[in-house]
């Protein structure tokens, strides 16, 4: 059987994209959000599936086992901008949802989010993951997912990643632009993968308080057990094992699930080069390391001044 070629990235309004996103652009931009929609936004590999599953359980965990055992997470939480030929688009899938609120996932940079989300003042959960672990996770994901551009070898991928020449563009632009948007827009909850890893209970409490939910202690305990990495890894409804375009023999979707795995990939030289790029690209932003900001319970009025070191 002939292998379909990997898609190429191209510049799209200043951001590297593939046709998987731009194919449905007008429908995407004209998407009609509802006031109670909840948007989960993140740069790729920040833990979107983790947060999607948490939100799904918070809102629909009571609906009985069928939902959890027969509907994959990508159908419960549609990927808004997805426009793969021969598959329903993300906007179609979202419009077909029968549950309320609709929980929707996106990797769009903030400037590309359809304007109806802002007009309707929808709640938005932005998930950040430290840049180094994101890079490693993205590299492995691009290998196993044939709808992604070919990542090449690790060192050339890392160079492209630092320069934003990968699908969805620069990690630095993504997180800092969402961060700037958060400041005037109180309907955004800015959280991190590291928050979830370091103290799931506290991260859940903050998330619930933002969403206006108050699950019982027993519900929270049940949820925390269900969203553990090992549990999700063996759960076919959240581990993407039902998606043929992902070759999990190359790398499982639920790969390591760790903070700091970058240390197993970066050479000393790559680390120095990355830190330099990081410092340069983040120099005008008050965002330093959201994981530590949240972990030590500091507020956005007290940005840390030391560089990101996770
Ligand atoms: P790794 O490749 O580092 O293992 P996304 O869902 O945004 O594509 O992110 C995928 C990353 O989140 C993968 O990272 C995956 O293993 C990790 N992940 C998913 N669920 C997780 C969980 N319950 N605990 C820890 N990491 C999780």
Q: Can you describe what's shown?
A:
The protein has a single domain, classed as Rossmann fold, CATH 3.40.50. Helices cover 42% and strands 8% of the residues. The protein is built from 16 helices and six strands. A four-stranded parallel sheet has the order 4-3-5-6, with helices on both faces. The longest helix has 14 residues, at 131-144. The protein is globular, with a radius of gyration of 19 Å. Mean pLDDT is 90; it is low at 291-310. Bound molecules: adenosine-3'-5'-diphosphate. The site of adenosine-3'-5'-diphosphate (A3P) has 18 residues, from helix 3, helix 8 and helix 14.
Task: Write the topology of this structure.
Elements (H helix, E strand, L loop, with lengths): L9 E3 L2 E3 L1 H4 L2 H5 L8 E5 L5 H13 L4 H6 L2 H4 L13 H6 L7 E4 L8 H5 L3 E6 L2 H14 L9 H9 L8 H12 L5 E5 H6 L1 H12 L5 H10 L2 H5 L34 H14 L8 H6 L15
Parallel strand pairs: 3-4, 3-5, 5-6
Antiparallel strand pairs: 1-2
The chain binds adenosine-3'-5'-diphosphate.
